[in-house]
Specification:
The chain is of the alpha/beta class and about 725 residues long. The longest helix has 18 residues. It has four domains: about 55 residues, no CATH class; about 210 residues, 3-Layer(aba) Sandwich (Dna Topoisomerase Vi A Subunit, Chain: A, domain 2); about 240 residues, P-loop containing nucleotide triphosphate hydrolases (Rossmann fold, 3-Layer(aba) Sandwich), CATH 3.40.50.300; about 110 residues, no CATH class. α5 packs across α9 and α18 packs across α19. The C terminus is likely disordered. It is built from 26 helices and 25 strands. It is elongated, with a radius of gyration of 35 Å.
């Protein structure tokens, strides 16, 4: 007989024939579960059944669900009562959780993720164990399915899960409850817990195993699960029974029995012993030569103090570090995480900051550079292996030391990689390879932090939906000489990098354990109003105009909608509040961090032109190309080209004004922002943003031109230069 015959026989099906109905492919015959006729046929290879009388048909799952329904309608349940007495859980609670009996056995239901019954496992009174059945897949038991954001309480025994579920319903605790068949967590179950908050409630066992190989099964099971999950959960906590010196053996059902009528006390005791499992796990960084012991750092100010011991720590570096910490911490939160570029030239401090997170292996994954194949790999090493980075990134921060190599790659390679990243940011991606391998990932959520040189200024993907914010690490007052001298003094300090890693690890671990994601501050009305303006300003400023080889505009450009950048900046506000451990940002902090990131996020030259233009407009209501070129030290053709692009986008315009000089063809072309853009600029707060401009006024330009117009050079056909006084006729012509 096949396994499926064995499966049905295990549940009391007696086959009167194993010949069945060969014509239809069914090779077993028995009594129908519904009509009781002797015309029910079973396919031993597929486990399918059909009754030729009542037409009832299905598979093994249909059979299991029918059987459970039949057993649950029994009015007399002496075996469940006996089971209740042994386990000290009231029979009504057991029946409410789907426990049923046949004439000879008690069965524990196994629920799938959608709360549907997928198996029945019998309880053996002799061995006091819940047994498996041939043909039934070993799988988790989803006792209580709440919201995805609720914590997942995980058990190694069904009865522990039932006991916990009883108490959770009494106090109204929101949670998901899953039990596993023993302590052996399976890698096929990883998808159930990706990105989830997990609390592992395994048993407080006695030592087991032969001499020299003693171990605690519960603790070992949690360690194994932690290794398999490899940081894919948003947290990994456990019940550390040793914190309150509970006896061995002891489990959740024992705690339930001791506190049946005191559900609040039960959960108080549960919460008292719930802690981050990382305290029990060797946290050796993958990319360091030595184990970094975290320093006790419980505030951002303390972290900055540790940094200042090793490097020149100016206000800009403080800003960059704060933004970097906020980016890493955002990986743990719901919604869109922050993706951030740290921009600066070589040796500006980018690597120092990025390397400081190297020891935070529970929160970050580090790579030197990035390619599409490293993000998603089609290599088929074995059936269950996936060498891709993406599935390991969930609820972590991807830290890239230097993205410059990717930005200098060919356009095709860039587009492939950034196309993959766009899909990943949008939380869903599917790729099929020529070897038949299919990689599908959903509900992805991770943050991004990478260093890049000024080449990023030429990289603009706003037309494809830009996902990145930027922060410039270089301060205008940066003392390069002082930084060089400090670096030379650190030559003899082999562990200066380790010191920064230890300090950063200490602070990140401290913050990670605060469960900050549950209480992110709400954005104020003022913040929302400013972000609305900022997002639209950025959308205007980084929209690029597509031109052909002849220099003509190929199509009317439309700017991006600023929703995504607004959400990212809003998340940055929240995470900076978390980093600084405060409820809101001050006005100065908003200007120093949010407005600075907003300006840095826009493209370089166009941003400089816009800022200078707004400054001129504030004092003179317009400016010329010459004024901008003089102030920015750029060619007039460069300035003019950008201004016409900005005009095409729709946030600058020009008018002509008589220069009153009398010189032919010397009318002034005055550039200014549109009224709509000016309102957005003021709404964003950028009008109060501190930046240095010493601009010439239009009146100064006029005076200079009137002076020059009296005597100017004319080159004749022979190449000889002559001077003459402008005529009255010339002075009066426009």
């Amino acid at each position: 007989m096949s396994n499926w015959f064995n499966f049905y026989e295990r549940y009391g099906v007696n086959f009167s024939s194993v010949s069945g109905d060969e014509e239809s492919g069914y090779n077993g015959k028995t009594v129908c579960f519904k009509c009781k006729s002797n015309k029910l046929f079973i396919d031993s290879e597929k486990g399918l059944f059909v009754c030729k009388v009542c037409k009832h048909s299905g598979n093994n799952l249909t059979f299991i669900r029918d059987l459970h329904k039949e057993y649950s309608e029994r009015k007399s349940n002496p075996l469940i009562k006996k089971f209740s007495e042994i386990k000290n859980i009231h029979i009504s609670h057991l029946k409410n959780h789907g426990v049923v009996q046949s004439s000879t056995e008690v069965f524990i239901p196994i629920f799938g993720p959608k709360k549907e019954i997928v198996a029945l496992r019998p309880y053996d009174f002799n061995s006091n164990k819940i047994l498996g059945v041939s043909g039934q897949k070993i799988q988790p038991n989803f006792w209580l399915v709440g919201k995805h954001s609720d914590p997942y309480y995980l058990f190694e025994a069904d009865l522990d899960a039932i006991a916990f579920s009883i108490m959770a319903k009494k106090v109204g605790r929101r949670c998901n409850i899953i039990s596993f068949p023993g302590t052996g967590f399976n890698k096929n179950w990883v998808s159930y817990l990706k990105g989830k908050k997990t609390i592992w409630c395994f048993d407080h066992d006695k030592l087991k195993g032969p001499e020299g190989h003693k171990f605690y099964p519960g603790e070992e099971g949690i360690k194994n699960a932690c290794k398999i999950l490899d940081g894919r959960t948003s947290n990994f906590k456990w019940l550390n029974w040793s914190l309150k010196d509970y006896p061995r053996p002891f489990d959740v059902r024992d705690l339930y029995i001791a506190n049946k009528k005191q559900s609040k006390k039960f959960f108080k005791k549960i919460d008292e012993i719930t802690e981050d499992f990382s305290k029990e796990v060797d946290n050796k960084p993958r990319n360091t030569d030595s184990v970094v012991v975290p320093l006790e750092v419980n505030s951002f100010d303390n972290l900055c103090a540790e940094f200042s011991k090793s490097i020149q720590f100016n206000p800009t570096l403080r800003r960059t570090l704060a933004v970097s910490v906020a980016t890493v911490l955002s990986a743990k939160t719901q919604g869109d995480a922050i993706w951030m570029f740290i921009v600066g030239p070589a040796s500006s401090g980018k690597t120092t900051i990025l390397d400081a997170f190297n020891a935070c292996t529970g929160q970050t994954i580090h790579r030197s550079t990035l390619t599409k194949t490293s993000l998603i790999s089609g290599r088929n090493i074995d059936e269950d292996s996936d060498p891709s980075i993406l599935p390991r990134l969930d609820s972590k921060c991807l830290v890239i030391k230097d993205l410059t190599m990717l930005l200098t790659a060919n356009a095709g390679a860039q587009e492939e990689t950034f196309g993959t990243l766009r899909d990943a940011y949008d939380a869903s991606i599917s790729v099929q390879y020529g070897n038949g391998v299919i990689r599908e990932y959903s509900n992805l959520r991770f943050s991004w932090l990478s260093g890049v040189t000024d080449i990023i200024q030429s990289f603009n993907k706003s037309d494809a939906g830009e996902r990145f914010l930027r922060v410039d690490i270089v301060d205008p007052n940066f003392d390069e000489g002082l930084q060089i001298r400090k670096a030379l003094k650190n030559l003899s300090k082999d562990n200066y990098s380790d010191h920064l890693r230890a300090a950063t690890l200490g602070f990140i671990q401290f913050m990670w354990g605060q469960d900050y994601e549950k209480r992110l501050p709400d954005l104020s009305d003022s913040d929302i109003d400013k972000l609305e303006g900022i997002a639209q300003v950025i959308a205007y400023m980084r929209t690029k105009v597509k031109k052909g080889r002849d220099g003509d505009v190929e199509y009317r450009v439309r700017k991006e909608v600023g929703t995504r950048v607004a959400k990212q900046l809003g998340k940055l506000i929240q995470m900076l509040c978390v980093t600084f451990q405060k409820d809101s940002l001050s006005e100065d902090e908003f200007n120093d961090y949010i407005l600075k990131v907003a300006i840095d996020t826009c493209t370089s030259i166009q941003t400089e032109i816009t800022m200078q233009l707004m400054k001129f407009y504030k004092s003179t209501k317009g400016c010329t190309v010459e004024m901008l070129a003089d102030k920015l030290q750029l060619g007039k053709s460069t300035i003019s080209g950008h201004l016409h692009n900005m005009q095409e986008v729709g946030f600058v315009e020009y008018s002509k004004r008589d220069n009153m000089s009398g010189a032919r063809g010397r009318n002034l072309m005055l550039w200014k922002p549109t009224n709509k853009f000016t309102k957005l600029w003021n709404q964003s707060g950028l009008n109060n943003f501190e930046y240095t401009i010493n601009a010439n006024t239009i009146d100064q330009i006029k005076k200079k031109r009137n002076k020059d117009a009296k005597t100017f050079k004319i080159k004749n056909d022979s190449g000889r230069i002559r001077r003459r006084q402008s005529s009255n006729r010339e002075r009066n012509e426009p």
